[in-house]
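Researcher: Next entry in the queue.
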Amino acid sequence: MAGAARSGTTALIESLRLHPDVFVTRPKEPHYFAFHGQGPAFRGPGDEEWVNRVAVTDPDAYLGLFAEAGGHAARGEGSVTTLYYAERAVEEIRRVNPDMKIVVLLREPVDRAFSSYVYLRLRGVEDAPDFRTGLARESERMAAGWQHMWHYRAVSRYADDLRTLREGLGEDQVRVWFYDDLQADFAGVQSEVVDFLCLPPLPPGAPALPRVNASGRARSETVQRGVRWATRHQGVRSVVKRIIPFGRREQLRSALLRRDTVAPDLAAELEPEFRDDLIEVARMVAGRRPAWLPREARP
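Model: Structure for this entry, 299 residues:
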């Protein structure tokens, strides 16, 4: 699975992990196809912990992540960097498995960028006091070698990377879904993805996931500081993961947040920046499409 960061990839891939015929790696984002053969050395706050240390760049080590896949019919992972670094990724995908299917999730670009900003604020690493300031610092951060989550505008431009995947792997192997559809009909999207992967439907009564990987403003900064402390200490994180199931952890995390949205005037100011890119995306996507994708462009 690939997709733009903060577009629902975590929710979807964790739901697929519940399918008896699906194996998903741990970590779910090994970033292999983006960084294979080179150790990432991003220099932004938190980048060492969240990307540099967890990226799997050796081909044998990557294949080793699937050692326990057994007889699972579908085996995969969920690195969003596969889309953002598509030009580097596609050749290695063809080498590892030329028949690989790619599920791509996209989100309205301004909302996606804002969600990334809010997420980094929540993690305590974004010191820009507001979204506009974070946007103004983007180019200098990219030049300084900060990882993709800091690339607010850049990650929200999808057309070139989507085209690279489609042309490199074949249109029938790359399918696009939208964050909006996940929000409106999660089970329906899940069912379509399962069908795309040529798998039988999830069995009746399969457990449902709560809202996962949520972002927003902390209801209590004191509590949030405690959460940040726990996530920075591997021993604490390991204990929490052992005693609290994934779904319950996500319920608790969401309960600590209040929803936040980008200011309407700033959204209106930013939206024209992405229009040409979205016209190109619309020309590549057939079927059901969200309202923010231009209607005059047809595949």
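Model: The longest strand covers residues 102-106.
Researcher: Noted, moving on.
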